[in-house]
């Protein structure tokens, strides 16, 4: 939800900037959109589709997540010329790194999980067990590789939708905002070059 | 008749095609941030 909020906020900022600059608002020219859709399919089966996510064994779900993240990074590479995609790629790579180092799932500590669910429910979960049917796995900080990249940040207590998120997610939120705000156009560095002079040899 | 029908099809195709590209691009971005991002509560919040 926080990522979709960043996307929406970026879109609104982009609309405002286009209006101020008296330019028409255009959607970023994303290449190979099909690849992002294909990349999402394994995750859709493993984590989102109610029928398949309960049937798929954990090792398969982990493999789906890793495969999906690799394809998403390829998608970023194909769109590297668009502003914001380096942040999106960086976030995806950080998440992939910590997921790959921790058995194919995003680690979350019991301390962080305690902010999301009731203590009674937390007691029913064993260390090393998946956190519900999501992408997270419950691990103690000392068991976690690259713990600083895990789902360790929380939204403010007043937020109605409580989730834990990682540094990679923060990069992705910033990238989504940036992409939509500047409509994928890279910033102009320096002054524009003067128009080419007409050759004195021309008639 | 056939030519007229083709012209209508061509006009409709020209009008819809850019929108399909925008919808696909938006879908790609949304699926990317849902897929590559991993904010999670395990679906357990509220239980």
Index terms:
heterodimer; A: 203 residues; mainly alpha; two-stranded parallel ribbon; two-stranded antiparallel sheet; 8 helices; 4 strands; 5% strand; globular; B: 47 residues; 1 helix; 0% strand; rod-shaped
Instruction: Assign a percent range to the helix content of chain A.
Output: 40-55%
Order of helices and strands of chain B: H
Count of DSSP H/I helices of chain A: 8
Tell me, rounded to a whole number, the average pLDDT of chain A.
88
Q: Rg of chain B to the nearest angstrom?
A: 20 Å
The proportion of residues in beta strands of chain B is under 5%
Query: Biggest interface between protein chains, with counts per chain?
Result: A-B, 54 and 25 residues
Major sheet: arrangement of strands of chain A: 1-2
Q: Shape of chain B, please?
A: rod-shaped
Average residue pLDDT of chain B: 78
User: Pairing-aware structural class of the strands and helices of chain B?
Assistant: mainly alpha
Work out the strand percent of chain A.
under 5%
Structural class of chain A: mainly alpha
* Low-confidence runs of at least 5 consecutive residues of chain B: none
Q: What is the end-to-end distance of chain A? A: 63 Å
Give the biggest sheet of chain B. none
Radius of gyration of chain A: 21 Å
The overall strand count of chain B is 0
Q: Main sheet of chain A?
A: 2 strands, parallel
């Amino acid at each position: 939800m926080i990522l979709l909020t960043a996307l929406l906020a970026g879109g609104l900022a982009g609309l405002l900037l286009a209006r101020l600059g008296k330019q028409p608002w255009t959607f970023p020219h994303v290449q190979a959109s099909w690849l992002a859709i294909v990349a999402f399919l394994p995750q859709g089966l493993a984590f989102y589709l109610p029928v398949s996510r309960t049937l798929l064994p954990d090792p398969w779900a982990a493999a789906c997540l890793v495969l999906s993240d690799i394809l998403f990074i390829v998608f970023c590479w194909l769109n590297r010329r668009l502003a914001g995609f380096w942040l999106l790629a960086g976030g995806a790579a950080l998440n992939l790194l910590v997921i790959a180092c921790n058995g194919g799932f995003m680690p979350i500590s019991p301390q962080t999980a305690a902010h999301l669910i009731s203590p009674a429910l937390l007691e029913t979960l064993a260390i090393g067990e998946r956190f519900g049917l999501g992408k997270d796995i419950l691990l103690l900080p000392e068991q976690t590789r690259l713990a600083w990249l895990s789902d360790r940040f929380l939204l403010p207590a007043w937020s109605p939708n409580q989730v834990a998120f990682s540094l990679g997610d923060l990069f992705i939120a910033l990238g989504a905002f940036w992409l939509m705000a500047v409509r994928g156009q890279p910033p102009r560095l320096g002054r524009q070059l003067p128009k080419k002079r007409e050759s004195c040899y021309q008639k | 008749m056939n030519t007229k029908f083709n012209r209508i099809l061509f006009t409709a195709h020209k009008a819809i095609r850019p929108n399909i590209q925008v919808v696909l691009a938006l879908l790609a971005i949304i699926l990317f941030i849902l897929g590559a991002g991993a904010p999670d509560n395990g679906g357990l919040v509220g239980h």
